[in-house]
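Tip: read the tokens left to right.
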């Protein structure tokens, strides 16, 4: 297995020099230090005259995203399948990448390989972007001489997992955004619009309806204590995110609760099952032992409820139990997935059966997310009607009463 190493900080250097014919040349290269750039240039037959670090403007450097890694996986798979050597593939990808941070990392991997390290060892120097699963699969491909095949499996895995993550994010973002807009509109009405009606009502000389009085009281509270409202709201969101990331009991409670939310819970549940099956299929197809594969599958689960269940399954499998029995005992996996895994274990085609399970549940998630907007439309109308429509009715009730008196 490839061992994780310390991440090497790469920089972009601008250089000037002369080639073997004495002609003046210049360019830019990526490396960990100026001395390393000098060594690289001399290997290329260039005598360096001047080397300086390229200044990066604040905020100009993009981050390396999971999508960038998925694209990188597909590019490497395509190039190596076409017979392009490893170092040349990295050179082409690095030079042609539009994301400076990604290009810098790819060129750093290339430099590490040229320094005598294996591809998997070079990837392990960037643990934030290449997890153990990625590194272990590349290592297995290098050891077996089937790197091109393993890179294709990695590319498929990354593309599928990123696609399902985007679907889940879309499902979670839509209702959250609608609720946020509804509360913002309500706040604006309470702070700016209701006070105008309050001034109008002062000249009526009559008692206001209880509903109107309540809304005016809310408006006054918003005007006098808006900083408390926003402070509590912002502090609550910050505290929730902070403790969710750092507290296992909090994560366990929230992940379990989210799985029970109508519609959204089904999407999260089926996406977790799809991720489990897809990761297990990829690891098992690469020849990784089942116990070791389950360790990587658990870390890729994306839900602490599934993570804990899979780690318990790993302990049971290590004692000799069949995987499908441990899945049944966990009570977390659907019968269809458990049955397919049982068939895969009996036929010796566990990777193929898990891939079919993954494809089925990925399609289920796609269909559910696509229909989510139509399911949420009545809910959205109801929320907006209660919040905004309620305020409008409260403001017009005194006017209606005044019309009846006249």
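Filled-in amino acids:
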């Amino acid at each position: 297995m490839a061992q994780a190493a310390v991440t090497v900080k790469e920089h972009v250097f601008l250089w000037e020099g002369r080639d073997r014919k004495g002609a003046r040349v210049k360019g830019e290269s990526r490396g960990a230090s100026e001395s390393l750039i000098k060594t690289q240039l001399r290997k290329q037959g260039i005598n360096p005259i001047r080397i300086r670090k390229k200044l990066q403007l604040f905020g100009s450097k993009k981050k390396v995203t999971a999508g960038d890694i998925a694209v990188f996986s597909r590019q490497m798979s395509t190039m190596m399948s076409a017979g392009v050597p490893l170092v040349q593939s990295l050179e082409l990808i690095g030079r042609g990448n539009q994301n400076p941070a990604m290009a810098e990392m790819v060129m750093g991997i290339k430099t590490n390989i040229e320094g005598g390290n294996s591809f998997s060892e070079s990837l392990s120097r960037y643990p934030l972007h290449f997890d153990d699963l990625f590194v272990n699969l590349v290592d297995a491909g290098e050891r077996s001489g089937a790197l091109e095949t393993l890179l294709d499996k990695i590319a498929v895995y990354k593309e599928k997992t990123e696609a399902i993550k985007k679907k889940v994010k879309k499902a979670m973002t839509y209702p959250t955004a609608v609720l946020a807009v509804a509360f913002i509109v309500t706040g604006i009405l309470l702070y700016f619009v209701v006070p105008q009606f309050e001034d109008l009502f002062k000249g009526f000389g009559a008692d206001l309806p209880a509903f109107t009085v309540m809304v005016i009281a809310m408006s006054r509270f918003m005007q006098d204590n808006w900083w408390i409202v926003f402070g509590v709201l912002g502090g609550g969101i910050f505290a929730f995110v902070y403790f969710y990331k750092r507290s296992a009991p909090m994560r366990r409670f929230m992940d379990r609760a989210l799985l029970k939310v109508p519609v959204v819970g089904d999407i999260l549940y089926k996406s977790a099952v799809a991720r489990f099956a897809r990761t297990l299929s990829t690891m098992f197809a690469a020849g990784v032992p089942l116990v070791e594969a389950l360790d990587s599958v658990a870390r890729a689960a994306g839900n602490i409820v599934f993570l804990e269940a899979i780690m318990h399954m790993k302990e049971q499998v290590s004692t000799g139990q069949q995987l499908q029995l441990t899945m049944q005992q966990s009570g977390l996996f659907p019968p269809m997935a458990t049955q397919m895994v049982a068939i895969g274990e009996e036929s010796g085609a566990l990777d193929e059966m898990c891939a079919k399970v993954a494809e089925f549940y990925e399609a289920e998630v796609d269909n559910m997310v696509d229909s989510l907007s139509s399911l949420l439309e009545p809910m959205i109308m109801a929320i907006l009607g209660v919040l905004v429509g309620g305020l409008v009715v409260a403001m017009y009730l005194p006017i209606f009463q005044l019309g009846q008196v006249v």
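The chain has three domains: 11-53, 66-159, 160-405. Residues 342 and 348 are 10 Å apart (CA to CA).
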